[in-house]
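Field log, afternoon session.

UNIT: design team B
ACTIVITY: writing a sequence onto a fixed backbone
BACKBONE:
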């Protein structure tokens, strides 16, 4: 996989399989991640299909189902679907307990009501039948995304809107394999989706006003706050966040300050819940390097902002990828 997805978040995510507490402003790691009523106009979306049942895909499915949309979760194997269900169930239980505390009947009703809006499918084409909005949250690879959308373009309803949840690949490049670029946009959720309020809506030149307004309406119905951005590398959040992380590394590499002091300074002086090195480790240093390498190759961002950092490159080369490998800038 040549690139990965990034996103920042505020909140905690603990599932019943892996009890890990996540802090705020975190990139989302890449995770690999039927059919309902008749077709509706673009400005009245009811049926949504989400491709990918990983952390992001499952989160999008959950918030859509919670807010009354009929949702199909699609992935290539049942084991991925089952894992997505586990993520959703664990999240719903936490939300139910928080919202209804001592009322077990209300908790049960909330969970059952949400789950009743969710169906699953391992058939990529059948999963999109009668869908008004198709959201892709699969592996962060341009060719893989293009292959999916090309197939869907030939089989999905002609009125269906296509959206990619990517945060590191150009929407224009993903969409060019379809014949519906006027119905194509980026819909970038942040992790964990049930807690994070922000959604970036990315418009390409061909995105129609009807498509754009439909996505605004959908995100608001999901209780999210949409912001709009052109199809520029990293969109808004990651375009600002990634260079910040790299500059922190350069500062420490020059010997201007220690890693620990940089993290402490940004937490106590700038109000950041995590320092840049803590954050980078939690994200995955390979994830960060892949994004930066891709941006540098693309050449659309000032070269100085995405210049390689020797320490980062060496850590990745040595397999020290951060928390997930037990060692990165810190040892875990």
């Amino acid at each position: 996989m040549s690139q990965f997805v990034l996103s920042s978040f505020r909140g905690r995510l603990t599932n019943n399989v892996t009890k890990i507490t996540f802090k705020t402003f975190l990139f989302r790691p890449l995770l690999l991640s039927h059919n309902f009523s008749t077709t509706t106009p673009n400005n009245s979306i009811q049926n949504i299909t989400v491709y990918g049942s990983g952390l992001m895909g499952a989160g999008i499915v959950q918030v859509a189902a919670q807010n009354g949309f009929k949702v199909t979760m699609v992935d290539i194997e049942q084991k991925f679907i089952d894992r997505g269900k586990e993520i959703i169930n664990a999240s719903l239980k936490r939300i139910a307990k928080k919202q209804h505390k001592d009322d077990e009947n209300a908790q049960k009703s909330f969970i059952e009501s949400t789950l009743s809006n969710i169906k699953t499918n391992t058939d990529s084409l059948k999963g999109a039948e009668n869908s008004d909005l198709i959201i892709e949250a699969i592996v962060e690879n341009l060719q893989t995304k293009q292959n999916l959308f090309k197939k869907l373009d030939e089989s999905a309803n002609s009125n269906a809107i296509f959206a990619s949840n990517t945060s590191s690949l150009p929407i224009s490049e993903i969409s060019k394999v379809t014949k519906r670029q006027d119905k194509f946009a980026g819909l970038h959720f942040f992790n964990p989706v049930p807690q994070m309020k922000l959604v970036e809506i990315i418009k390409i030149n061909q995105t129609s006003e009807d498509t754009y307004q439909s996505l605004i309406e959908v995100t608001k119905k999901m209780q999210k706050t949409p912001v709009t951005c052109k199809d520029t590398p990293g969109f808004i959040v990651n375009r600002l966040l990634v260079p910040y992380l790299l500059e922190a590394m350069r500062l420490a590499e020059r010997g201007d300050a220690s890693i620990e002091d940089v993290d402490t300074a940004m937490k106590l002086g700038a109000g950041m819940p995590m320092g840049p090195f803590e954050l980078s480790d939690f994200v995955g240093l390979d994830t960060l390097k892949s994004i930066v390498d891709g941006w540098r190759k693309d050449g659309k961002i000032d070269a100085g902002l995405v210049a390689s950092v020797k320490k980062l490159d060496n850590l990745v080369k040595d397999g020290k990828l951060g928390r997930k490998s037990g060692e990165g800038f810190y040892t875990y």
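LOG NOTE: The radius of gyration is 20 Å.
NEXT ACTIVITY: expression trials, pending approval
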